[in-house]
Amino acid sequence: MATITLSNVSKDYGGGPVLRGIDLEIREGEFVALMGPSGCGKSTLLRLIAGLEEPGGGQIHIDGRLVNDVAPKDRDLAMVFQSYALYPHMTVRENMSFALKQRRLPPAEIKAAVEAAAVKLGLTNLLERKPKALSGGQRQRVAMGRAIVRNPKAFLFDEPLSNLDARLREQMRYEIRKLHRELGATSVYVTHDQVEAMTMADRIVALNDGTIQQVGSPQDLYDNPANLFVAGFLGSPPMNFLDATLAPDGALVVEGQTLARVSPPAGPPPTGVASGAVILGLRPERVALAASGEGVPARVDVVEPTGTGRVIHLGLGAQRLKLFIMDTRPLAVGETVGLIVPPGAPLLFDPATGTRVG
Protein backbone atom coordinates (compact mmCIF):
# COMPACT_ATOMS: atom_id res chain seq x y z
CA MET A 1 0.00 0.00 0.00
CA ALA A 2 1.19 3.51 -0.76
CA THR A 3 0.51 7.17 -0.22
CA ILE A 4 0.44 9.34 -3.35
CA THR A 5 1.00 13.08 -3.01
CA LEU A 6 0.63 15.64 -5.79
CA SER A 7 2.00 19.14 -5.17
CA ASN A 8 1.16 21.97 -7.59
CA VAL A 9 1.14 19.54 -10.53
CA SER A 10 0.47 21.02 -13.95
CA LYS A 11 0.47 19.83 -17.56
CA ASP A 12 0.32 21.69 -20.87
CA TYR A 13 0.52 20.00 -24.27
CA GLY A 14 1.04 23.33 -26.05
CA GLY A 15 -2.61 24.21 -26.72
CA GLY A 16 -3.31 25.50 -23.21
CA PRO A 17 -3.12 24.02 -19.71
CA VAL A 18 -4.69 20.58 -19.20
CA LEU A 19 -3.98 20.52 -15.45
CA ARG A 20 -3.59 23.64 -13.34
CA GLY A 21 -1.78 23.42 -10.02
CA ILE A 22 -3.19 20.13 -8.69
CA ASP A 23 -2.68 19.54 -4.95
CA LEU A 24 -3.92 16.19 -3.68
CA GLU A 25 -2.99 13.58 -1.09
CA ILE A 26 -4.22 10.00 -1.55
CA ARG A 27 -3.94 8.11 1.70
CA GLU A 28 -2.63 4.59 2.20
CA GLY A 29 -5.28 1.97 1.39
CA GLU A 30 -7.78 4.57 0.14
CA PHE A 31 -10.04 4.20 -2.90
CA VAL A 32 -10.15 7.59 -4.65
CA ALA A 33 -12.22 8.35 -7.76
CA LEU A 34 -11.09 11.08 -10.16
CA MET A 35 -14.43 12.18 -11.60
CA GLY A 36 -15.33 14.69 -14.27
CA PRO A 37 -16.44 15.18 -17.87
CA SER A 38 -14.37 14.31 -20.93
CA GLY A 39 -11.42 16.67 -21.29
CA CYS A 40 -11.28 17.70 -17.63
CA GLY A 41 -7.77 16.23 -17.15
CA LYS A 42 -8.57 13.14 -15.05
CA SER A 43 -6.88 10.57 -17.35
CA THR A 44 -3.89 12.88 -17.79
CA LEU A 45 -3.55 13.07 -14.01
CA LEU A 46 -3.62 9.26 -13.77
CA ARG A 47 -0.96 8.96 -16.47
CA LEU A 48 1.24 11.43 -14.60
CA ILE A 49 0.97 9.28 -11.47
CA ALA A 50 1.82 6.19 -13.52
CA GLY A 51 4.80 7.90 -15.16
CA LEU A 52 3.38 7.60 -18.68
CA GLU A 53 3.48 11.40 -18.96
CA GLU A 54 5.87 13.95 -17.47
CA PRO A 55 4.43 16.85 -15.46
CA GLY A 56 5.00 20.36 -16.75
CA GLY A 57 5.46 21.52 -13.19
CA GLY A 58 5.05 20.42 -9.60
CA GLN A 59 6.03 17.24 -7.79
CA ILE A 60 4.67 13.71 -7.47
CA HIS A 61 5.63 11.63 -4.42
CA ILE A 62 4.87 7.94 -3.83
CA ASP A 63 5.47 6.86 -0.24
CA GLY A 64 7.43 10.06 0.27
CA ARG A 65 9.75 9.41 -2.67
CA LEU A 66 9.91 11.99 -5.45
CA VAL A 67 9.12 10.08 -8.67
CA ASN A 68 9.03 12.82 -11.33
CA ASP A 69 12.03 11.26 -13.06
CA VAL A 70 11.35 7.62 -12.10
CA ALA A 71 10.42 5.27 -14.97
CA PRO A 72 6.92 3.71 -14.91
CA LYS A 73 8.33 0.20 -14.36
CA ASP A 74 10.14 1.38 -11.24
CA ARG A 75 7.13 3.01 -9.57
CA ASP A 76 5.58 -0.35 -8.61
CA LEU A 77 2.10 0.61 -9.79
CA ALA A 78 -0.38 -1.52 -11.77
CA MET A 79 -2.74 -0.06 -14.36
CA VAL A 80 -6.05 -1.48 -15.57
CA PHE A 81 -7.17 0.06 -18.85
CA GLN A 82 -10.53 0.44 -20.57
CA SER A 83 -9.23 -1.61 -23.52
CA TYR A 84 -8.07 -4.63 -21.39
CA ALA A 85 -4.70 -4.71 -23.29
CA LEU A 86 -4.45 -8.50 -23.18
CA TYR A 87 -2.07 -10.49 -25.37
CA PRO A 88 -4.40 -12.30 -27.82
CA HIS A 89 -2.01 -15.22 -28.49
CA MET A 90 -1.61 -16.02 -24.78
CA THR A 91 -3.93 -17.94 -22.48
CA VAL A 92 -5.43 -16.35 -19.40
CA ARG A 93 -2.76 -18.03 -17.30
CA GLU A 94 0.01 -16.73 -19.55
CA ASN A 95 -1.41 -13.20 -19.58
CA MET A 96 -1.63 -13.11 -15.81
CA SER A 97 1.84 -14.55 -15.28
CA PHE A 98 3.67 -12.52 -17.94
CA ALA A 99 4.93 -9.71 -15.67
CA LEU A 100 6.05 -12.19 -13.02
CA LYS A 101 8.04 -14.17 -15.58
CA GLN A 102 9.71 -10.93 -16.67
CA ARG A 103 10.85 -10.54 -13.07
CA ARG A 104 12.26 -14.09 -13.23
CA LEU A 105 10.32 -15.27 -10.17
CA PRO A 106 10.37 -19.01 -9.40
CA PRO A 107 7.76 -20.97 -11.40
CA ALA A 108 6.11 -22.32 -8.24
CA GLU A 109 5.69 -18.78 -6.87
CA ILE A 110 4.21 -17.59 -10.19
CA LYS A 111 1.77 -20.51 -10.32
CA ALA A 112 0.61 -19.89 -6.74
CA ALA A 113 0.11 -16.16 -7.34
CA VAL A 114 -1.86 -16.68 -10.56
CA GLU A 115 -4.10 -19.36 -9.09
CA ALA A 116 -4.79 -17.33 -5.94
CA ALA A 117 -5.83 -14.34 -8.07
CA ALA A 118 -7.94 -16.59 -10.31
CA VAL A 119 -9.87 -17.84 -7.27
CA LYS A 120 -10.58 -14.25 -6.13
CA LEU A 121 -11.83 -13.29 -9.60
CA GLY A 122 -13.70 -16.47 -10.54
CA LEU A 123 -11.27 -17.28 -13.35
CA THR A 124 -10.08 -20.73 -12.25
CA ASN A 125 -12.00 -22.56 -14.99
CA LEU A 126 -10.85 -20.08 -17.66
CA LEU A 127 -7.08 -20.19 -17.15
CA GLU A 128 -6.39 -22.17 -20.34
CA ARG A 129 -8.63 -20.07 -22.59
CA LYS A 130 -7.43 -17.28 -24.86
CA PRO A 131 -8.99 -13.77 -24.76
CA LYS A 132 -11.07 -14.34 -27.91
CA ALA A 133 -12.99 -17.07 -26.04
CA LEU A 134 -13.92 -14.72 -23.18
CA SER A 135 -16.74 -12.24 -22.67
CA GLY A 136 -16.02 -8.56 -22.04
CA GLY A 137 -16.51 -8.95 -18.31
CA GLN A 138 -14.19 -11.97 -18.20
CA ARG A 139 -11.50 -10.11 -20.14
CA GLN A 140 -11.69 -7.23 -17.68
CA ARG A 141 -11.32 -9.66 -14.78
CA VAL A 142 -8.22 -11.09 -16.45
CA ALA A 143 -6.80 -7.57 -16.78
CA MET A 144 -7.46 -7.06 -13.08
CA GLY A 145 -5.90 -10.42 -12.26
CA ARG A 146 -2.76 -9.47 -14.17
CA ALA A 147 -2.51 -6.38 -11.97
CA ILE A 148 -3.27 -8.23 -8.72
CA VAL A 149 -0.55 -10.86 -9.10
CA ARG A 150 2.09 -8.14 -9.18
CA ASN A 151 1.14 -7.10 -5.63
CA PRO A 152 1.80 -3.42 -6.49
CA LYS A 153 1.91 -0.43 -4.17
CA ALA A 154 -1.23 0.98 -5.82
CA PHE A 155 -3.78 0.19 -8.53
CA LEU A 156 -4.60 2.75 -11.22
CA PHE A 157 -7.89 2.23 -13.07
CA ASP A 158 -8.52 4.20 -16.27
CA GLU A 159 -12.28 3.97 -16.97
CA PRO A 160 -12.10 0.15 -16.89
CA LEU A 161 -15.85 -0.44 -17.23
CA SER A 162 -16.69 1.86 -20.13
CA ASN A 163 -16.83 -0.99 -22.68
CA LEU A 164 -19.27 -3.09 -20.66
CA ASP A 165 -23.06 -3.10 -20.72
CA ALA A 166 -25.08 -1.83 -17.75
CA ARG A 167 -25.49 -5.21 -16.04
CA LEU A 168 -21.80 -6.08 -16.34
CA ARG A 169 -20.79 -2.63 -15.11
CA GLU A 170 -22.87 -3.19 -11.98
CA GLN A 171 -21.30 -6.61 -11.43
CA MET A 172 -17.76 -5.32 -11.97
CA ARG A 173 -18.30 -2.35 -9.63
CA TYR A 174 -19.12 -4.86 -6.91
CA GLU A 175 -16.13 -7.05 -7.74
CA ILE A 176 -13.63 -4.18 -7.82
CA ARG A 177 -14.89 -2.78 -4.52
CA LYS A 178 -14.85 -6.26 -2.93
CA LEU A 179 -11.28 -6.80 -4.11
CA HIS A 180 -10.26 -3.45 -2.68
CA ARG A 181 -11.62 -4.45 0.71
CA GLU A 182 -9.81 -7.79 0.57
CA LEU A 183 -6.47 -6.44 -0.67
CA GLY A 184 -6.50 -3.10 1.15
CA ALA A 185 -4.50 -1.60 -1.71
CA THR A 186 -4.41 2.09 -2.53
CA SER A 187 -6.57 2.59 -5.63
CA VAL A 188 -7.06 5.55 -7.98
CA TYR A 189 -10.03 5.19 -10.30
CA VAL A 190 -10.79 7.48 -13.26
CA THR A 191 -14.42 7.77 -14.35
CA HIS A 192 -16.90 10.15 -15.95
CA ASP A 193 -19.75 8.08 -14.50
CA GLN A 194 -21.10 9.61 -11.29
CA VAL A 195 -22.75 6.31 -10.31
CA GLU A 196 -19.36 4.56 -10.35
CA ALA A 197 -17.80 7.35 -8.31
CA MET A 198 -20.64 7.45 -5.77
CA THR A 199 -20.87 3.69 -5.23
CA MET A 200 -17.18 2.79 -5.18
CA ALA A 201 -15.05 5.60 -3.78
CA ASP A 202 -13.99 6.47 -0.26
CA ARG A 203 -13.40 9.98 -1.58
CA ILE A 204 -14.25 11.69 -4.85
CA VAL A 205 -12.01 14.26 -6.52
CA ALA A 206 -14.29 16.34 -8.75
CA LEU A 207 -12.30 17.78 -11.68
CA ASN A 208 -13.30 20.34 -14.27
CA ASP A 209 -11.22 22.32 -16.74
CA GLY A 210 -7.99 21.03 -15.22
CA THR A 211 -8.71 22.11 -11.65
CA ILE A 212 -10.00 20.36 -8.56
CA GLN A 213 -13.49 21.63 -7.79
CA GLN A 214 -14.04 19.67 -4.56
CA VAL A 215 -12.69 16.67 -2.64
CA GLY A 216 -14.73 14.68 -0.14
CA SER A 217 -16.82 11.61 0.56
CA PRO A 218 -19.52 10.79 -2.01
CA GLN A 219 -22.29 11.75 0.40
CA ASP A 220 -20.59 15.03 1.33
CA LEU A 221 -20.27 16.08 -2.31
CA TYR A 222 -23.88 15.10 -2.92
CA ASP A 223 -25.29 16.91 0.13
CA ASN A 224 -22.86 19.85 0.28
CA PRO A 225 -21.59 20.65 -3.22
CA ALA A 226 -19.13 23.53 -3.35
CA ASN A 227 -20.40 24.96 -6.63
CA LEU A 228 -22.78 24.55 -9.55
CA PHE A 229 -20.48 22.12 -11.37
CA VAL A 230 -20.32 19.60 -8.52
CA ALA A 231 -24.03 20.02 -7.74
CA GLY A 232 -25.02 19.37 -11.34
CA PHE A 233 -22.60 16.52 -12.02
CA LEU A 234 -23.76 14.30 -9.15
CA GLY A 235 -27.30 12.97 -9.03
CA SER A 236 -29.74 11.22 -11.34
CA PRO A 237 -31.98 12.92 -12.26
CA PRO A 238 -29.62 15.88 -11.93
CA MET A 239 -30.24 18.79 -9.58
CA ASN A 240 -32.75 21.45 -10.64
CA PHE A 241 -31.37 24.98 -11.01
CA LEU A 242 -33.88 27.83 -10.89
CA ASP A 243 -33.39 31.58 -11.17
CA ALA A 244 -34.67 32.99 -7.88
CA THR A 245 -34.68 36.07 -5.69
CA LEU A 246 -33.68 35.86 -2.04
CA ALA A 247 -35.75 38.30 0.01
CA PRO A 248 -34.43 39.84 3.27
CA ASP A 249 -36.80 37.61 5.28
CA GLY A 250 -35.38 34.41 3.67
CA ALA A 251 -38.17 33.89 1.14
CA LEU A 252 -37.01 32.36 -2.17
CA VAL A 253 -39.17 33.80 -4.91
CA VAL A 254 -39.39 31.99 -8.25
CA GLU A 255 -41.61 33.28 -11.04
CA GLY A 256 -43.37 35.62 -8.60
CA GLN A 257 -44.16 32.87 -6.05
CA THR A 258 -42.47 31.98 -2.77
CA LEU A 259 -41.26 28.47 -3.53
CA ALA A 260 -39.22 27.96 -0.35
CA ARG A 261 -37.77 29.69 2.69
CA VAL A 262 -34.31 29.69 4.20
CA SER A 263 -32.92 31.36 7.30
CA PRO A 264 -32.45 35.08 6.61
CA PRO A 265 -28.85 35.99 5.75
CA ALA A 266 -26.84 36.63 8.92
CA GLY A 267 -24.77 39.38 7.33
CA PRO A 268 -24.17 41.17 4.05
CA PRO A 269 -24.85 38.85 1.10
CA PRO A 270 -21.82 37.58 -0.84
CA THR A 271 -20.55 39.58 -3.77
CA GLY A 272 -22.79 38.89 -6.75
CA VAL A 273 -25.98 38.29 -4.74
CA ALA A 274 -26.30 41.74 -3.18
CA SER A 275 -29.27 42.37 -5.45
CA GLY A 276 -30.98 39.26 -4.05
CA ALA A 277 -30.50 37.26 -7.26
CA VAL A 278 -29.49 33.65 -6.60
CA ILE A 279 -29.60 30.29 -8.32
CA LEU A 280 -31.77 27.91 -6.33
CA GLY A 281 -30.66 24.27 -6.43
CA LEU A 282 -33.17 21.52 -5.60
CA ARG A 283 -32.60 17.76 -5.72
CA PRO A 284 -35.51 16.11 -7.59
CA GLU A 285 -36.13 13.64 -4.76
CA ARG A 286 -36.25 16.39 -2.10
CA VAL A 287 -39.29 18.19 -3.47
CA ALA A 288 -42.71 16.74 -2.65
CA LEU A 289 -46.18 16.92 -4.16
CA ALA A 290 -48.69 18.63 -1.88
CA ALA A 291 -52.21 17.53 -1.14
CA SER A 292 -54.83 18.77 -3.59
CA GLY A 293 -55.21 22.55 -3.50
CA GLU A 294 -52.05 23.13 -1.44
CA GLY A 295 -48.46 24.11 -2.24
CA VAL A 296 -46.99 26.21 -5.04
CA PRO A 297 -48.82 25.47 -8.32
CA ALA A 298 -46.86 23.91 -11.19
CA ARG A 299 -47.88 22.34 -14.49
CA VAL A 300 -47.24 18.67 -15.34
CA ASP A 301 -45.45 18.46 -18.71
CA VAL A 302 -44.15 14.87 -18.85
CA VAL A 303 -44.44 11.78 -16.64
CA GLU A 304 -41.67 9.15 -16.91
CA PRO A 305 -42.22 5.85 -15.03
CA THR A 306 -38.93 4.29 -13.89
CA GLY A 307 -40.23 1.15 -12.18
CA THR A 308 -39.11 2.25 -8.71
CA GLY A 309 -40.88 5.61 -9.01
CA ARG A 310 -41.62 8.36 -11.48
CA VAL A 311 -39.76 11.37 -12.87
CA ILE A 312 -42.19 14.27 -13.23
CA HIS A 313 -41.25 17.16 -15.52
CA LEU A 314 -42.95 20.35 -14.35
CA GLY A 315 -43.39 23.87 -15.62
CA LEU A 316 -43.13 26.68 -13.08
CA GLY A 317 -43.89 29.77 -15.11
CA ALA A 318 -41.15 29.98 -17.75
CA GLN A 319 -38.82 27.66 -15.82
CA ARG A 320 -38.64 23.87 -15.68
CA LEU A 321 -37.85 21.38 -12.95
CA LYS A 322 -37.96 17.63 -12.32
CA LEU A 323 -39.26 15.64 -9.37
CA PHE A 324 -38.52 12.04 -8.53
CA ILE A 325 -41.41 10.64 -6.50
CA MET A 326 -42.66 7.32 -5.20
CA ASP A 327 -46.19 8.77 -5.02
CA THR A 328 -48.54 6.64 -7.14
CA ARG A 329 -51.41 9.11 -7.49
CA PRO A 330 -52.63 9.51 -11.09
CA LEU A 331 -51.07 12.46 -12.90
CA ALA A 332 -52.12 13.80 -16.28
CA VAL A 333 -50.10 15.97 -18.64
CA GLY A 334 -51.32 19.54 -18.35
CA GLU A 335 -52.63 19.03 -14.82
CA THR A 336 -51.72 21.54 -12.10
CA VAL A 337 -50.11 20.14 -8.96
CA GLY A 338 -48.79 21.75 -5.79
CA LEU A 339 -45.13 21.68 -4.71
CA ILE A 340 -43.69 21.62 -1.20
CA VAL A 341 -40.01 22.31 -0.60
CA PRO A 342 -39.07 21.11 2.91
CA PRO A 343 -36.57 22.95 5.12
CA GLY A 344 -32.99 22.05 4.31
CA ALA A 345 -33.70 21.19 0.67
CA PRO A 346 -32.77 24.53 -0.97
CA LEU A 347 -29.14 25.11 -1.95
CA LEU A 348 -28.14 28.61 -3.04
CA PHE A 349 -25.47 29.55 -5.56
CA ASP A 350 -23.97 32.84 -6.68
CA PRO A 351 -25.14 33.37 -10.29
CA ALA A 352 -21.95 35.26 -11.15
CA THR A 353 -19.38 32.75 -9.88
CA GLY A 354 -21.35 29.51 -9.40
CA THR A 355 -20.04 29.25 -5.84
CA ARG A 356 -22.28 27.85 -3.13
CA VAL A 357 -23.54 30.64 -0.85
CA GLY A 358 -26.20 28.89 1.21
TrEMBL record:
Q: Write down the species.
A: Nitrospirillum amazonense
- Stored Gene3D superfamilies: 2.40.50.100, Nucleic acid-binding proteins, P-loop containing nucleotide triphosphate hydrolases
Record-annotated membrane-spanning stretches: none
One Gene Ontology cellular component term attached to this UniProt record is:
ATP-binding cassette (ABC) transporter complex, substrate-binding subunit-containing
**GO terms of molecular function:** ABC-type transporter activity; ATP binding; ATP hydrolysis activity
Q: Which UniProt keywords apply?
A: ATP-binding, Nucleotide-binding, Transport
For this entry, the protein name equals Carbohydrate ABC transporter ATP-binding protein (CUT1 family)
One GO term of the biological process aspect: carbohydrate transport
